[in-house]
């Protein structure tokens, strides 16, 4: 079909057409790419603010993303279409931001991104989840035994540092509590059998005494 279009029309179309590659590439600044630049600055200076924090700040309205019209000076009048354009309808995701950050890092020539302290992240998540202190201790030993190598080196996106820290916690919990999708089901089956026997003998209201 394109061959039937005159050459001058094709040339004129190419001059005015904006490709999807250009729209999604690092050359065109968008709110998510500004966030990517901000995250790179935080990692270069090794600040204790992570991508998950930025996404939460955006959803809480503490970091502008969903309502960019707030950044416009009050003396500038905005139409309804302008406000709709400055309001982000799509939700920002962790994986999508890591991909955009990786693109911006390559574009800006940022080759060294400091890996955050995973132990600090583990301790923070254990505190936020109100987990016992022993969980963080076991996770620390696990990290020392199997230290992860999470270097950003010509990859499509930056490593998932927060996900790896949470993975250590999950592994410790699954190991200590036998959460292997088998043992917990067997425990539930045994409890059901005990409860049925207690009902048969009319002991359902009698508290269980442990030796």
From TrEMBL:
<protein>
    <recommendedName>
        <fullName>Rrn7/TAF1B C-terminal cyclin domain-containing protein</fullName>
    </recommendedName>
</protein>
<keyword id="KW-0238">DNA-binding</keyword>
<dbReference type="Pfam" id="PF20645">
    <property type="entry name" value="Rrn7_cyclin_C"/>
</dbReference>
<dbReference type="GO" id="GO:0005668">
    <property type="term" value="C:RNA polymerase transcription factor SL1 complex"/>
</dbReference>
<feature type="domain" description="Rrn7/TAF1B C-terminal cyclin">
    <location>
        <begin position="103"/>
        <end position="186"/>
    </location>
</feature>
<keyword id="KW-0862">Zinc</keyword>
<comment type="similarity">
    <text>Belongs to the RRN7/TAF1B family.</text>
</comment>
<keyword id="KW-0479">Metal-binding</keyword>
<keyword id="KW-0805">Transcription regulation</keyword>
<dbReference type="GO" id="GO:0042790">
    <property type="term" value="P:nucleolar large rRNA transcription by RNA polymerase I"/>
</dbReference>
<dbReference type="InterPro" id="IPR048538">
    <property type="entry name" value="Rrn7_cyclin_C"/>
</dbReference>
<dbReference type="InterPro" id="IPR033599">
    <property type="entry name" value="TAF1B/Rrn7"/>
</dbReference>
<dbReference type="GO" id="GO:0001164">
    <property type="term" value="F:RNA polymerase I core promoter sequence-specific DNA binding"/>
</dbReference>
<keyword id="KW-0863">Zinc-finger</keyword>
<dbReference type="GO" id="GO:0070860">
    <property type="term" value="C:RNA polymerase I core factor complex"/>
</dbReference>
<keyword id="KW-0804">Transcription</keyword>
<keyword id="KW-0539">Nucleus</keyword>
<dbReference type="GO" id="GO:0008270">
    <property type="term" value="F:zinc ion binding"/>
</dbReference>
